[in-house]
Amino acid sequence: MEIEKKSFEIIKGELGDEFVSSYPADALPLLCRVIHTTADFSYRDTLTITDGAVEKAREAIRRGLPIITDTTMAASGINKTAAGKFGIEVHCFIGDEDVKEAAKESGMTRSAVSAEKAARLYPECIYAVGNAPTALMRLYELIEEKKIRPALIIGVPVGFVNVVEAKELILRTDIPAIVARGRKGGSNIAAAICNALLYEAGGR
Amino acid sequence: MEIEKKSFEIIKGELGDEFVSSYPADALPLLCRVIHTTADFSYRDTLTITDGAVEKAREAIRRGLPIITDTTMAASGINKTAAGKFGIEVHCFIGDEDVKEAAKESGMTRSAVSAEKAARLYPECIYAVGNAPTALMRLYELIEEKKIRPALIIGVPVGFVNVVEAKELILRTDIPAIVARGRKGGSNIAAAICNALLYEAGGR
Known about the structure:
The structure is a homodimer of 204-residue chains.
Chain A: H1 2-15, H2 17-22, H3 28-38, H4 43-46, E1 47-49, H5 53-62, E2 67-69, H6 72-77, H7 80-84, E3 90-92, H8 97-106, H9 110-121, E4 126-129, H10 133-144, E5 152-155, H11 163-171, E6 177-180, H12 187-203
Parallel strand pairs in A: 2-3, 2-4, 4-5, 5-6
Antiparallel strand pairs in A: 1-6
Helix pairs in contact in A: 1-3, 3-12, 5-12, 8-9, 9-10, 10-11
């Protein structure tokens, strides 16, 4: 905790006073935690938080809505003690037998099928995507079809194919969203954003 | 798999022919997978692989030596099917009750205590550190004390305090090492390097 405090001071110092004081106060802890997780200051320019998304996230957390992730790695990185304080369950369906089977039958990715499973079980949720652009693209379709309505989408898949496009698609919906534009992202970043939101909501 | 193939082609294209043909052939799949995991080309300049480390890693994998990680997230990101092909177990001790207690009593971090537990149980192992510089620093001491002798250390913690120094310390030992110099790294990168090594050894 001591080291984390010192790290955040270094991060804010390198971001600079002018930037820090002009950045939305409720979004700053998110940006700092993403940089803390990656040591990559380029998220300063790519982290995109839609209007009111942090406030909506706080409401969702206080209501104890479940967090769904696209990877076990993202699920594993979420602080369960902090989540537990709000009665929040963390789910990832990627390894479920029914998801594997449906993916095989349909030719869709397991990540896309997982989004469908979430739509059936938890149409209201926080959906965090750290890896699979296909998860974001299927989420977009399910939102359009009014089959899912996440309280928040964290859209930070990483990669070189369809990733940039999938993120822009999500930003076109009216769902509150936290997105790292461009190629960069990752399961660790999805988890870091969830943790920052949990901590800011009072989970630590 | 199709998308991964395309991604690797994009990565090699952006690295450039000259770079790709001059980079050590056995290390290239590691670098490409790290970039694939992060979309961050700066690893081109920071990924440091000591002489013969990839060959030593291959031997260790074929012998089925266990992989120890400092975080559950890194453990979670390692492809268990690929590891299983070599009979490789993946362990992370950070959440173990005895580690928690020993950390409380000693004032050491849980990551450092985990390194001690590994020294007792698996003095010969692949040790992958994606988060905690204290794990690397304790590993360094245990190596000096001849209490642990990993076949390979993957040293890619991320952060702003003691991280750069801890990585340099490991590079000073004679243990084969794969290190991302500087501040950057992460549990996702530790897992990506493990997976690249497993795949190159024939795990996929």
